[in-house]
């Protein structure tokens, strides 16, 4: 398909992308958003290079932050169990502030210097699984007294050293993993890695990310199943039953004064609305002492006044800084374990880039933009490790889906989101408020989120011929082995004894990480058992990109570096051979064309953590 370029009064372009195109108008105000939501589902109100009015940027930037809200705050809360911080809400609030702050910085770097698409950066459950596996090792098991709230003195040096030593070990592991990701991205190796990946490797890997976290969901929900089920029911109601029902929102314009614009708020913010409603109901039940006041009684942890002192203790302004928990330490076992999650995160992000380009009215990302984006995500993981978030950063699939809902693909909106997250990270009391969410409410959210992640993995089997006994064997054996082996290793940690302590630790982390075990077995079997590409789903997997194209002029406008950097680089012909540098002005179409043979497509909507994989051979 040839690219159609039309210039309008704003000197922007219209990109025709296989039925996805940006229909620009000369007059753009807040009514455009409502019109785009009601009109043609393929028309965009603002393309990737457009700049909406400042007030619209702020509103939509807040919306993107709220869309990522559930995933961002869930990671520190789950991680606090492995860090022995269950009863230290103030430190949990510091972790939430830090992850918001770093996510904002990484978003700004990615949009300005990375892939340059409107794509939000934040923490990922892909890296949470190997982190929890590392913290479950015998030397990092929490002391028994940290599980008893009456015995925990959160200000004592002993307790501080307990959780900070574990955090420093995580930081060092993420820093080492990020160096590998930066190398793979900036060297252009990501395309070669993905040549060996198929749906039968991806499906068990993604599914096991959600399944491996079932214990955290069950523990949190079990504190009060009534509240947890209520939260799950509300999220289900908003996201499935009410998602196509618009809500009238008052809006004001100079020409039409006060009017109402219909917005599909249930489709955009189902998780946030479910948490807020459940949180409010728990507050009312707490105020009238319907919930028990005795800590020994069932349902006590559903009260909202358990951590009320955290808000008063938290500072108004805080500034996270590198090495705030001490100098990171490095262990071979931790670095190798995190490496498995980093590889999965890279593959997920490549799919996000292609989905984001389609939904934002941009040409398919060329190779240099993909390489730069993966390398910049590696830099983001490096920053996350240095600051001590306990997690890395990756592209957020939820926010890519939000682009398709709002029909606003401007990267300026995501820049506002990044700035907002940085500001939220410096507001200590905002993060402290998040820690007062009752445990059962979070448990209800986990039931939905982890279930969707598991289903997202299984959905990759749509490309595979599941009537084939070969494929049934590969998927079934990979999934079942990934449940059996980690469970047995956790019950018999002494079984691994090679005589080398470092090797024992590496095997301990890898074999207790379900996503690694399932992904590795699926990778080996899928690439060694005879089978045609059609049977394995490789042909169907790559069909999504057969019609992709790239035009030199438009691709440069979207993906080239800002501030005249690309123009400066073009004066040095040898720089065009560097994988992450944009080609010169005279570069041919082939040099800026996306590598569609090696990069897979990821469906943008309805997937939380899709198209992720482990390449076991690299370990």
Automatic annotation (TrEMBL):
> What sections of the protein cross the membrane?
53-79, 99-119, 169-189, 223-242, 263-288, 325-343, 413-435, 441-460, 472-490, 505-525
* Signal sequence residues: none
Q: Which GO terms describe its molecular function?
A: transmembrane transporter activity
Query: Where is it chiefly localized?
Result: membrane
> What is the recorded membrane topology of this protein?
Multi-pass membrane protein
Give the subcellular location.
Membrane
GO CC terms, sorted: plasma membrane
Q: Any idea which UniProt keywords this protein has?
A: Membrane, Transmembrane, Transmembrane helix, Transport
Q: Which family does it belong to?
A: Belongs to the nucleobase:cation symporter-2 (NCS2) (TC 2.A.40) family.
PANTHER family, A to Z: XANTHINE-URACIL / VITAMIN C PERMEASE FAMILY MEMBER
Name of the protein described by the UniProt record: Solute carrier family 23 member 1-like
